[in-house]
Amino acid sequence: MPKYYLPFAIHLHQPVGNFEKILEKAVYKCYAPFLKTIEKFPSFRFSLHISGPLWEWFEVRFPHLIDLIARLVERKQIELMAGGFYEPLLPFIPERDAKGQLSYMLNYLKNRFGVVSEGLWLTERVWTPELPKLLAPLGIKYTLVDDTHFFNAGLNKKDIHGYFITEKEGYCLFIFPIDKKLRYLIPFKDPKDIFEYFESFFTNTEGNTLTYGDDGEKFGLWPNTWQLVYKKKWLEKFLSFLEKENKIEILPLKEFLEKFPPRARIYLPPASYEEMMEWSFLPEFGARYLEFIDFLKSEKKWERYQPFVRGSNWDNFLRKYEESNLMHKKMILVSEKVAKNFPKYELSNLPLAIKHLWKAQCNCAYWHGIFGGLYLGHLRSAVYQNLIAAENALPNKDIEIIFKDYDCDGRKEWLFSSPKINAYIKPTYGGALILLEWREKKLNLTHVLTRRPETYHVKIREKINQPKKEKTDDVKTIHEQFKLKQPNLDKYLVYDWHYRFNFLDHFLSNKVNLFTFSQSKYQDLGDFTTEPYEISDWGKEKNGVFLILKRKGNINGFGTLELIKQFKILTEGEIIVHYQLFPTFSSNLRFATELNLFLPNWDLIINEEKYNILKVREFKKISKFTLINYDNSIHISAKQPFHLWIFPIYTVNLSESGAEKTYQGTCFVFITKFNFEKDKIFIQEWQLKLSN
């Protein structure tokens, strides 16, 4: 008989919209060698979850991997676990979609492998107490969350072993606590260290079971792990150690449930793993949270007070990152539209609109931690691409205007949709265009990320000033290492004072130049950029719609100015923004209108000359320019000549391989010089046209 039990679960996932080369690297460096290695050790039996995006990709590109998994399932070496098919955070999508995604995965596993899955891999282990009521009716009997959840429920470390049962309104669910220490030991330490950890854990504690559950990508895809796991044969050594010593029995979670009863009933608060609850803090609080933990550890009080120390929760990402909130609310809006058109559907013949909606609910682009997530523009693009595709698949193709609190801040936004474009305007934030989507191209042009402080930026500055350390052969988990992928990253630690929306209005003195503007080191003389505009009028016209906004604001040191901004949105993909300015003073000032567009592979054409928009540029006295990308073009022109400033927006963010500079968009600033005269009207007009 083994001395200890180790219920073991592996989770494999790649985001919707990830690059093909990364998916291929994951197969060759991780998924294929992992499966081929464990095939040689039939006594190693475990639970496996693979997300829907990977299943679909395997079906097309690597069907032999599915065949291998099927053989391992048939010989009972692998127990397949379910989850939301496209890896959504179940508590943060509409319940109808959560049930649909779960049912779709269960249906896939049954049809493809002949198994009825009773286990759930909970995406990012984001738990809410309502989940048992959602999961139990679908036949889900157990899931895994982290020991953090159990600390937050008032348990001490010595009590978190075996498994537990919880319920909501009588709907029961078994819960395994994932041991954090094991996540940091496997596969980074000697197999004997794992056994010694079991010995130390149960020295003064009755019990014999700890649970492991984590990302399978750490077995070859995480930095330096391929060399460790396969070249240095960590995995083979680990599996051989288990067979030879017979001290720890690894087994699937379902099998452990059938052998042993739960330890106790428990009620867990909303939570995720410890690192996630740190990342979701706003930077100031994240720094203080880490400082407090360090203080408790230095005073040797961490174990005593750990149950009373908890971080933020996943919801806080929607406050921390307005771009995440806007993406989430767009998803909610599209889900409502899809539900109205498809109240019922067959899983075997899934409507295209539902499939694209579910793909857009893949969690990765909605948050940021050690992985790039929200900071990766191609993941945000994939979310919006699928949301637009879902809308395009709906039967209603009429022009639609909705006036509602779209972003849930207590203020209403103006939402326009036509078969050609979607354009959303936020009157209460500078009268800004917050979303522009080119529907026939399935492109969101405006999901530009604001440059903002992150808790880890302090570490970047410290790392740059530290002498370089000698390299060691030690391989650490990504949570234990901090690398800089590029030099001079501190030069890009620039922070914006407003969101990177569109048709934001500035009044600039002659002291402001392209450099100070791009670095957000300038004084805006006006109070128009982020302040509210009033809606004067709106309605439909023959070829589109119009919205008239106005604001009477102050120009610092000069006086007041009334600004009327009229949007005309034509059904064929053209936006005209007409400005009327009524000053109560006389002076020379520069009026600047700001546009921020996500254009990673576009070029700029001015006077038939092509320019790269990833460089800082300035053009004087022009009246129009064109942005091109393959067969797509955006034409921008003005009624009066203007100066044009262009600069790329880069952030410094973490990824699993280290801190890096990432392109978030390009800022275009249109500057008109006005010789303002008291009580006279001054006019400028911008035209933005989308064309093939």
UniProtKB/TrEMBL annotation:
<dbReference type="GO" id="GO:0003824">
    <property type="term" value="F:catalytic activity"/>
</dbReference>
<dbReference type="InterPro" id="IPR014718">
    <property type="entry name" value="GH-type_carb-bd"/>
</dbReference>
<dbReference type="Pfam" id="PF09095">
    <property type="entry name" value="AmyA-gluTrfs_C"/>
</dbReference>
<dbReference type="InterPro" id="IPR004300">
    <property type="entry name" value="Glyco_hydro_57_N"/>
</dbReference>
<dbReference type="InterPro" id="IPR011330">
    <property type="entry name" value="Glyco_hydro/deAcase_b/a-brl"/>
</dbReference>
<protein>
    <submittedName>
        <fullName>DUF1926 domain-containing protein</fullName>
    </submittedName>
</protein>
<dbReference type="InterPro" id="IPR015178">
    <property type="entry name" value="A-amylase/a-glucTrfase_central"/>
</dbReference>
<dbReference type="InterPro" id="IPR028995">
    <property type="entry name" value="Glyco_hydro_57/38_cen_sf"/>
</dbReference>
<feature type="domain" description="Alpha-amylase/4-alpha-glucanotransferase central">
    <location>
        <begin position="314"/>
        <end position="392"/>
    </location>
</feature>
<dbReference type="GO" id="GO:0005975">
    <property type="term" value="P:carbohydrate metabolic process"/>
</dbReference>
<dbReference type="InterPro" id="IPR015179">
    <property type="entry name" value="A-amylase/a-glucTrfase_C"/>
</dbReference>
<dbReference type="InterPro" id="IPR052046">
    <property type="entry name" value="GH57_Enzymes"/>
</dbReference>
<dbReference type="InterPro" id="IPR011013">
    <property type="entry name" value="Gal_mutarotase_sf_dom"/>
</dbReference>
<dbReference type="Pfam" id="PF09094">
    <property type="entry name" value="AmyA-A_glucT_m"/>
</dbReference>
<feature type="domain" description="Alpha-amylase/4-alpha-glucanotransferase C-terminal">
    <location>
        <begin position="405"/>
        <end position="679"/>
    </location>
</feature>
<dbReference type="Pfam" id="PF03065">
    <property type="entry name" value="Glyco_hydro_57"/>
</dbReference>
<feature type="domain" description="Glycoside hydrolase family 57 N-terminal">
    <location>
        <begin position="20"/>
        <end position="269"/>
    </location>
</feature>
<comment type="similarity">
    <text>Belongs to the glycosyl hydrolase 57 family.</text>
</comment>
<dbReference type="GO" id="GO:0030246">
    <property type="term" value="F:carbohydrate binding"/>
</dbReference>
<keyword id="KW-0119">Carbohydrate metabolism</keyword>
